[in-house]
Amino acid sequence: MSAAIAALASYGGSDSESDSGSDAEGKPGLSAQVAGADAVLHLAGPPPSAQQALLPVVDSAPAVSVKEDVETGLHLDPTTKEVQYNPKYDTMFAPEFGPVNPFRTQQMAAPRNMLSGYTEPAHINDFMFEQQRRTFATYGYALDPSIDNYEVPTKYIGSVEEAEKNQGLTVFETGQKKIEKRKKFKQNDASNIDGFLGPWAKYVDEKEVAKPSEEEQRELDEITAKRQKKGKHEDDKPGEEKTVLHGQCISRFTNRKVPYCVKFNPDEDKQTLFVAGMSDKKIVQWDIRSGEIVQEYDRHLGAVNTIVFVDENRRFVSTSDDKSLRVWEWDIPVDFKYIAEPSMHSMPAVTLSPNGKWLACQSMDNQILIFGAQNRFRLNKKKIFKGHMVAGYACQVDFSPDMSYVTSGDADGKLNIWDWKTTKLYSRLKAHDKVCIGAVWHPHETSKVITCGWDGLIKLWD
Prior knowledge:
Layout: H1 2-19, H2 21-26, H3 28-39, H4 48-53, H5 89-92, H6 106-109, H7 126-139, E1 141-143, E2 156-158, H8 160-165, H9 171-174, H10 214-228, E3 259-264, E4 273-278, E5 283-287, E6 292-297, E7 304-310, E8 315-320, E9 325-329, E10 335-339, E11 349-352, E12 358-363, E13 367-372, E14 379-385, E15 397-399, E16 405-409, E17 414-419, E18 425-430, E19 436-441, E20 449-453, E21 458-461
Antiparallel strand pairs: 1-2, 3-4, 4-5, 5-6, 7-8, 8-9, 9-10, 11-12, 12-13, 13-14, 15-16, 16-17, 17-18, 19-20, 20-21
Region (Disordered): 1-31, 209-242
Organism: Crotalus adamanteus (Eastern diamondback rattlesnake)
GO cellular component, one term: catalytic step 2 spliceosome
């Protein structure tokens, strides 16, 4: 490299000698040095200062975020209704933090404060709101609430034609609707005797049809066919009663009151007389030959329930709803024996014993009381039969023919049998599904009892 530079320098010095002969003669060394320095100037490298500028710049300080790059705003809660400062737009409408459902539609992703959407309180007069609501419900139109009514006062929603017809009047301005009445034929001239109709005039559109139409006739035929349709014929059970009434009604007796009990006089010479306990607190005696009332016994204070003849049919005993027992002489309307105690209850069923000495009375306090039936008619306190429930039901009491047992039904449909001597409950049978209202011993076959109940059955027990 240095050899090439020296050769170039010598070559340049020979050329300059011919041009400047006089100068070279005076100072030969200086001219050669100047010419050599200028000739190789472009071949020299850059100065040291320039070499330093071309080196890469290295900053040893770490990268630190400046204050402007850090977000200093506060994040608002989406449910916040009020803030105490003036936030920026970006802060108020920034997206919410948290995961986002990518499958939500734009409508579902919109903010909501209720199930159907977003509601905000609006200032509206209650009267105006109710007025427009009723107008829309009645006529089908209302003012459009989405626009300013001051600018466009005739903008309606719903039935616009109806609004134009009513000139936009509301329910409080149109008045009450008139009910269209059916028109009648008018012929009010009273002087026209044949043609006068008056208030009996028929309607204009009224039809007079004497015969039902085909559809109505078909329905009537179906109804009559169902009524005439008979049920299944079941085989008659053995011992079933097929007739209800026997013979012809000969005569009728009434005093226009409800009779509760009827008894014929058992004497042979008084077979034409009978007594009936009525609902008007009287015992009425009739003669079937004349059909007239021959005697009245009116000392009871309540409806008469039972009548039983005692003492060889010279007397009869009656019980009533007034919780009393009265003994009467035949054909004498004044009772000669009156039995009533504060502890007594109504006795709607009374039976005379086979020997004629005792009266068994079904008391409504679930007891069977025994009264003497000969002289004093006193209560036999040693003969009280308990253990059954008959409150509210007039269950019949009966004695066995040999006076060994006392029987009675009860409200549960059971047949109760007591021992006469010990008054203990001897047996209890489930006789009926409903109330067992009657029980009678067979007068000849003393081991058999027949019962009847409210289930519609009559049963014979052995």
